[in-house]
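Notes, Module 5: Reading structure tokens.

Key idea: the token line is not a picture. It is a compressed description, and you learn to read it the same way you learned to read a sequence, by spotting repeated patterns. We will look at two proteins. The first is printed below with its tokens.
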Amino acid sequence: MGGNKYFFPMVVMSILFFMVGFITTMNNSLINFLSSSKWMLSFTEKQLINTSFFGAYLFSVPLSFLLHKLGYKSSAVLSLFIITLGFVMVFPSVSIGYWAFLCSMFVVAVGIALLQIVLNPYVLALGDECKAASRLNLTGFFNSLATVIAPLFVSFFISTDNPIAGASDIMERPDPQNVRIPFLFIAGIAFMLGFILFRLKLPEIADNTNDDDTSKNSPYKYPYLIFGSIAIFMYMGIEVGIPSFLPDWMKSQGINSINIMGIDLNSTTILSIYWGGLMVGRLIGAIVLQNISARVATTFCSSLAVVLLLSALSAGGKISLLLLALCGFCNSILWGNIFNLSTEGLGRHTKLASGIVCTFAIGGALLPPLMGYIQQIFGAGDLFAGTRMALSCLLVFYSYIILFALILSKVGKTIH
């Protein structure tokens, strides 16, 4: 397949990946702001922001059937209009209360889940299968670019009222209604993208029934797909867990900000280092993965992340914040590589397999609250020990991904 033939579709997919990354990271970056707002959320309650968002991925399999019926382009257009609806709903719901706000963000997340199901297999199909992981990491670069910008967006346009440390008076806390105007702006952008995409002509990728092994009548009969889906579950706990608990790790050590090259980074803006690591790593991965297998790269990056995490938990202090943030670089290629290893060789089952894999992104909804529950056992009086124990859970998640890359990704696969 000629590279020029798919240049324009890759540009469009990159823009949509940017949208997914921006909204997903913005949602996560709201945790610190909303927990210190007039809603006065507990450790467990504030992690429900992730639960409501990533919980939408439970509908990934039904959404994959919708993708099968509508095709890639129509499904992408529909997803953008659903996202628009969700952000518009935030305007009245945030005045009602926290639970109504979560319901609105769940609608946004349904649109993001459908868009995610569309983007991953579409990009994998746009060219040589041997370079599929490289393409996914290239579009992932734009996803990560958005994740760097999103925390800054939250810091400058939403979290403008600095919370007063230990404020007991609810009137001294930031107003959660600060999200309304920025969210309406994002709704307008999503609507315009949906309208433009509706008017564009994109190639519809046909299912390839001549792939290596599509003799099985159900994708569930491929063990490596199931193992890979579990790896995605673990990965989402990592990707969401680190930025969710990094502010508490900072607070537990009495650190208000750190200065890097003359720039003071607070608990929100420091997340840009984490997401920036993902951005740089995916750009490098797009080049390196043309010559190195996804299996080798995944094993190496996961192992390096374990070393960084252990060092951070042992060292403490400002250096530990940087070590945790640098885990973002190691995480950069994991989603794309795991997705590729989980779905390669599935042919006509690829669309449904994409839904199955994306369903397990529910890990971003379930694992952070579990970590928050572990943190809360220690209570606010020992925030350091609680947060360290919560972050230690990431070692288990990384270990499974290493196991998948080395062994489980080969189980039941006819190509290696």
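Here is the second protein, with the sequence above and the tokens below, as before.
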Amino acid sequence: MMAKDKLVDYDSTASSNLDVGGVSVAEGMLPSDVNNAIREQMSHLKDFASGTAGIDVLSLADDDASHAIKLQAPSAVTADTTFTFPDGDGDADQVLKTDGSGQLGWTAVASNPSLIINGSFQVWQRGTSLSITTSDYFIADRWINYPGTGGAGTASQQAFTLGQTDVAGEPEFYLRHDQTTGASSVPSVQHRVEDVRTGAGQSVTLSFYAKVGAGTLTIDPIISQYFGTGGSPSSAVDHAPADITVTTLWQKFERTIALTSITGKTLGSDGTDSLQIRLQLPTSSTFTLDIAQVKFEIGSTATPIQQKNYGDELVKCQRYFELLGHAVSTGGNAYSLMSLSLGGTASNQWLDVEFKVEKRAAPSSIDSFNGYTVPSPTATGIGVAGFTLFKNSQMIFIKSGGSNGDAVASVSAEL
């Protein structure tokens, strides 16, 4: 039998431990061997403390020793490695990082780019507090607040108190969905990421902060791979991670799912395929839900959201929605004379507008905004970069009681 020269040589069965470092501790051992055995054991403990001899598994038991967390080296180690821990416990959301030589340090998690545009709810071109209906539900840019069948409510931009610490990252704004009339079908807060190819066959992680005005509220998150319309597209593939229970306190929630491969799927012909996020809300209920700092990213870990410059975020939003024109108020009305008269006659009006940002797709129409009357053109040419209109009479955007600087029309290329 080999001598038990280090801790890992000891046996968990007491009767099997017949020596310590070759000194017999068997029945009938010499009295002098007691001292020698204790000295051998002390040397083994010293070797363990100094790191010259180790153990196979370090077990850290809970208070009643019913369970433990265990640390273990790989089954085969190619070289001795010493990790030196940093002082202190670091800051919130930091992780340990090695310098390649065994020195560990606290560092912020590298942030993945977010697939969501306007996840911090900075941009609200349509207005910062609007009623939501089943036919008018685009509120914050790139976001849908759907009230559900028979439901009604408002969506609004709310401001955080400067210096608050409940929601990390010092955001300025959050979204409030105020469901004032219960719905018979599911209300929801939605975001649509352009192109169903996004993340296909990979893990994706959704994270956000939320709280409810009173009591608790259950959110049913759905991630949908939507293949568009037109032609014969494949049916949408829905993924349903675990429900989320929201309370009256701000909390961060994270859900990770594996998107299916889209091999063998067919896209619709209209270019509206997308990766859709739906936060489904309770039916037959009224509630006030606040949501902040929404991030959707490739990977199985939620990384911190990066605050965006308003101007940069606005440009991204204008790929899908843009306001047009600037009104001048006079005589009780406001007008925007954007057209050009060819030959100086009112029966030969042309309007040529270049969009600030090329659109996702050509808008189908020029729509009224702020209650302005939009002239119906005789001929229309609308593309992704702008439009040209012709009308054989005056082409004036007008509103009674309008204000200087009003936007008078809009174009949409929303998904």
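Summary for the second protein:
- The chain has a mean pLDDT of 91.
- The CA atoms of residues 282 and 402 lie 39 Å apart.
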